[in-house]
Each structure stands twice: as structure tokens, then as C-alpha cells.
Amino acid sequence: MDPFEDTLRRLREAFNTGRTRPAAFRAAQLEGLGRFLQDNKQLLQDALAQDLHKSPFESDVSELITSQNEVDLALKNLQDWMKDDPASKSLLTRLDSAFVRKEPFGLVLIIAPWNYPVNLTLVPLVGALAAGNCVVLKPSEISKSTEKVLAEMLPQYLDQSCFAVVLGGPQETGRLLEHKFDYIFFTGSPRVGKIIMAAATKHLTPVTLELGGKNPCYVDDDCDPQTVANRVALFRYFNTGQTCVAPDYILCSPETQERLLPALQSTITRFYGDDPRSSPYLGRIINQKQFQRLQGLLGCGRVAIGGQSDESDLYIEPSPGPRFPAAQFQDADAPRRCGPELEEIFGPILPIVNVRSLDEAIDFIKRREKPLALYAFSNSSQVVNQMLDRTSSGSFVGNEGFIYLTLPSLPLGGVGNSGMGRYHGKFSFDTFSHHRACLLSYPGLEKLKEIRYPPFTYWKQQLISWALDSQSCTLL
Ligand code: NAD
């Protein structure tokens, strides 16, 4: 017995009727999603507090307001985004109509992780609904309280013939992936990303993979350590470090490290008080498995600050500075268990790797997988621009943290090991739309078109070559 078959058949049949295509239907779904967010604000905040100990402020800023903003933006721009894009023409097609039509893919699957369980489920959903798809949503089974609210409440606000929430972990998701979808949007780890892509290959289903990564944070000698400490700490310890785009480790010289550590200590005390554990602004690790993984990491290097933890409360103190010399990671025989060689820190630990120069930092970064985000802090715009020009990553930020995520005008997406595809704002609409090349010609005007038919004389060939040139149209 296949638990998904009936649901998927129902959704596919609904899509085939064409009811999701009109702008009015799409707008009604987006409005429903907006109402869901408003009506269930308290429920969602409570669920996020249970799952991740998120403060109402963090929940609002990074989950609820962000999702609502995406809904509002899509509603405001829907008509415009849906419009055909006119295409330029050659002389040969001058009298035809050429355009790109944005059409829905059909039945879309969205699979989400646990770390921002509202945002990373609903923001892709906004794009999928705006683009006129039917959607199956698979929230993370690990952020259980949020999963429950999404499963029980969200369908009440959307057309249930076109939308469904399905539940389950790896095994159930594996079965779900045996079915054919028209698009799969996955957010999660690179390891599972490969499983998703392999499953999609069977049906030649296009995918977006929003994956994790290790995000280097270069701190130049020419910087104000306190400013850097404030900005790095805010974004490293936000959501207790469980953020895909968080600075994962610092690259700096030993001298800058000595200036940065006391600054980080002072920032942490200012942000979270003398006893960070009692701070309402510091969350908790999602579960025991992750806690134990992070405990192992703390044992790897020399922790400079913090390092306290309590398994019964899933608490880990903000801990900058298990310290590692970069040379340790360039020696092929060195043990590669710790810090910058691990998959992803994904917690409130901030290893520091010592490099001697900007060149060595760039070399260190380029020897590794392309990160999801890359940060560079320096008073010198030359240094920041060199880092930008000589490296590659999903996103790049100079002298800031992941504040860029608040701009729907910038896409979120990885490159290489950190993923493929992008979304947010109009990028989401485009991701969930097939861009169909359309050319509408006339049944008449045959005399004009005869030039294209054999037999081809020398002059006919010359004329066609000229008329095919995209510039030929503007010359006339
Ligand atoms: P995960 O890859 O373990 O799980 C993500 C989703 O995949 C969940 O819904 C889960 O149920 C499902 N899943 C897990 N194993 C599966 C399997 N074997 N077959 C099919 N489905 C399976 O990721 P996670 O632990 O939930 O989230 C943390 C990871 O996500 C980190 O690597 C983080 O960097 C990444 N992430 C990336 C972004 C981004 O925007 N690029 C955002 C948030 C998190």
C-alpha cells in the first residue's frame, strides 16, 4: 500500500484541470498563506520556542516577518511577474510574435530542514504558489512542534485539491521520492542533497538544491576588532549557530586573533550577560544527536572562551576559538577530524584558523568546496574586493553578516557543493516557473517566407544569413 498515491493523483488531476493557472487563484492562495501566518502567529512562536528555544524576536525576524514579506511581495508583483517577456527578433521573424511565457511546472515537492522550520518551508512555498503549481510540502520531522502546526493548520488556508502536507523522516521521504514530480525544491545537507538528486534523475525531474556548507570568515589585520566581533557574534550565535549561512570559522593572523578574542568575549557578555544560559536571546541545540556532535567538536581544539555545556538542557555556551594553525590542514597526513575539516559546525562554536596573509586565506578557501556564503572583514576595500574577485561562493558579504537575506532583490543559493538554483522574491517565482520559448507566426504571408525554401541560390543564402542576424532588424 502506497501512502502517497491517492494524494499525489488528486493533486495532479487538479493541476491538469488548469485551475491553478489564473492569477486570481494564485493570489487567493497567497492571501491564504498570509492569513495563516497572521492567525497562527502565537502558535508558531510557541512551536519555535519548543523546537529551538527561539525568542519571539528571533522567530519574528527570521521566520514570520520574512515569510510574510515574501507573501506581500509576491502579491504586489504577481501580475507583473506573470507577464510574458518579449523577445528580440531577427528580420526573418520580424512579423512574428516572440516571447517567453512563465508557466507552472505542475506538481512540485518542497522538502525542508529543521533549523528555520517556518521560513525554509513557507518561503519556497510562496514561489511555488505564485508560479501556479500544485504543491506537496514535506516539513522536517525533527522540528516536531512546528511540523505539527504546519500539518494541522496550513491546509485549512489553502485549496486542498492543489496542496498537501506530508509527514515523515528519511524512510517515508524516500518512498515519496519514488513518485514522479515536476520539480523538487530541497533544502538540507549536501549528503541528503545527493540522495534527492539521484531520486530525481530517475524521472528527469529538475531540482533546486539549497545545501549547507562551511562559510569562511576572513578577518584582515586592518580592522576594528570590536566592530568585527559584534557583527560576527550576532550572526554566528543567531539561532545558536544553527544557520546555513552563518560564519563557520574565522581565518586571521595570530596577531588579529589576539585582538579579536577579548573583543568577542566582551561582545558575548554584552549580548547574553554573565550567564548566557539564562539569556532569553540564546536558543538551544535542536536535539541530543546534534548536541553530542557539537560536544565532540568542543574537544577538538583549545577553546578560548566559553565551552560550558549541559546536555539535559541542550545548552552550549557561545564558544569562539578552538584554535588551529592553517598548516595543520594543508598537511595531507594531519588528522582531519576537527574544526574547518568537519562537514559543518552548525552550532555556537567558532573555530579560528591562523593564516599569515590574505593570499594564504584565499588559497585555504580555494582548496576547499565552494561555500554557501563567504565573509570578509577589512577597513580596506581593496582587500574585500580581492577576496570577492579571487574566490567563488553562493553569496559574498563584505563587513557584514547574513543581513543580505532580508533583501528579496538578492538570491539565496549555493554553487558547487553548497547547492544549485536560487530563490527569494522574483527569483523564487522564476525558479518554480518553466520559461517556455514561444513564437506565434501567421498562416499567411507565404510569399515573404518563400525565400527560406530550397533550392538555395547564392543570393538567397546571402539574404537569409543577413536576415538571421539579430542586428538586421535594428538596421532597418
Ligand atoms: P537534512 O539533509 O538531514 O534533512 C533535510 C530534509 O531531508 C528533512 O526534511 C529530512 O526529513 C529529509 N531527509 C533526511 N534524510 C533523508 C533521506 N535519506 N532521504 C530523503 N529525505 C531525507 O538536513 P537538516 O539536518 O534538516 O538541516 C541541516 C542542513 O541543512 C545543514 O547542512 C544546513 O546547512 C542545510 N541548510 C541549508 C540551507 C540553505 O538555504 N542552503 C538552509 C538551511 C539549512
Automatic annotation (TrEMBL):
The catalytic site is made up of 210
Keyword list (alphabetical) reads:
NAD, Oxidoreductase
Q: Which domain of life is it from?
A: Eukaryota
Tell me, what's a Pfam family for it?
Answer: Aldedh
Coiled-coil spans in chain: none
Gene3D superfamilies per UniProt: Aldehyde Dehydrogenase, Chain A, domain 1, Aldehyde Dehydrogenase, Chain A, domain 2
Q: Which InterPro entries match?
A: Ald_DH/histidinol_DH, Ald_DH_C, Ald_DH_CS_CYS, Ald_DH_CS_GLU, Ald_DH_N, Aldehyde_DH_dom, Aldehyde_DH_NAD(P)
Q: Where is the Aldehyde dehydrogenase domain?
A: 9-434
Q: Which family does it belong to?
A: Belongs to the aldehyde dehydrogenase family.
Q: What is this protein called?
A: Aldehyde dehydrogenase
| Originating organism | Galeopterus variegatus (Malayan flying lemur)
